[in-house]
Amino acid sequence: xxxxxxxxxxxxxxxxxxxxxxxxxxxxxxxxxxxxxxxxxxxxxxxxxxxxxxxxxxxxxxxxxxxxxxxxxxxxxxxxxxxxxxxxxxxxxxxxxxxxxxxxxxxxxxxxxxxxxxxxxxxxxxxxxxxxxxxxxxxxxxxxxxxxxxxxxxxxxxxxxxxxxxxxxxxxxxxxxxxxxxxxxxxxxxxxxxxxxxxxxxxxxxxxxxxxxxxxxxxxxxxxxxxxxxxxxxxxxxxxxxxxxxxxxxxxxxxxxxxxxxxxxxxxxxxxxxxxxxxxxxxxxxxxxxxxxxxxxxxxxxxxxxxxxxxxxxxxxxxxxxxxxxxxxxxxxxxxxxxxxxxxxxxxxxxxxxxxxxxxxxxxxxxxxxxxxxxxxxxxxxxxxxxxxxxxxxxxxxxxxxxxxxxxxxxxxxxxxxxxxxxxxxxxxxxxxxxxxxxxxxxxxxxxxxxxxxxxxxxxxxxxxxxxxxxx
Length: 472
Description:
The protein is an alpha+beta fold. The chain has a domain of 70 residues. Helix content is 39%, strand content 17%. The chain has an eight-stranded mixed beta sheet. A hairpin with a 2-residue loop joins strand 9 and strand 10. Helix 3 crosses helix 7, helix 3 crosses helix 14 and helix 9 runs antiparallel to helix 10. 44% of the residues are buried.
């Protein structure tokens, strides 16, 4: 085509079943602490936090040079969506880079507050609930092949997601009939139904809105919103990695055991609040099973197909090992088996140590502050950052990979094209627009549509970047 319109795209790649696009979206809690602070609305605080972003991006909704998206979500929550990743290592690096990118907005916001005569310290939390009982989420995205029976396909995943929290939950001090208790997940109490096309009115476990951000004839997006925000890198690894393994079997039409639940909503709460793992949930066929038993069935099913439908790799072996130890930690009541890897066990160990030291109960506000400090993403005031430096929380990727991911996109997916274009345009001071599937220079009639998230090369983007560099 000529200068105007949408340029023709290259044909889609032939992608093997083992390759998948992942993404994480994290909504951060935002709080201004300080006894001298005047009343500041969440919207006002978010405006100060994103002032520097608006200065260069002319919006509080921008795509960055690392191809991720940074924006203010409903409820004045800062939100960061990772770029498209096709490896767990890239996903973890991009996710942790997002924590630092959002935290890096704080110093300028603090200066603006001081200039305005507002006292207080800004804190950003990677958690899922606030003191008022509001919930905000961490959404997981998995690109899946389009199929006519998507609703049935997605519903098959629900028993896995309901019980997955016993290994990948963030752990939380929650309110119960008998007082405060430690639960596997704070997010579980805020789920309203299994599947829905809404995320705000009904808050389902899986959002079925058909928005693939890819070729709609080939793909759909499995948009999971039931999971907790994860602090420990191995928890992200297990949460996303095990879900991918289950999806691989489902896409290959490998029969999974029928573990359909009679009531997902009742089951997710019962599982969350039972740290012993002994409470049973009722299946649609009338059977009673514990979450430990259900997770073991899924693990054994996956293990039975390793070397066949699932290729054996070091990563798969590591996932199966951590998955088994996570299940055993609950079954045997031995959180020490995963006490540096899985958030619920890390946090439980921490809280129990201080509870015993203080000779107090879980209702003690000092323990609530300790729990909140675990989710504080500041390298100075955040507890998890110090624990990681002291070797009390394990890592999957090193610090160099996280620092690189703050500015560089994953190199093996569409993100590489978006990141390269944005870097060139920003470097040359050119106005541009970008979203998940399009890039365009302001004043240029051409829109480059990038429908294939697996493709990391494109001559049309090469041409745009060359023209930008030639004119600068």
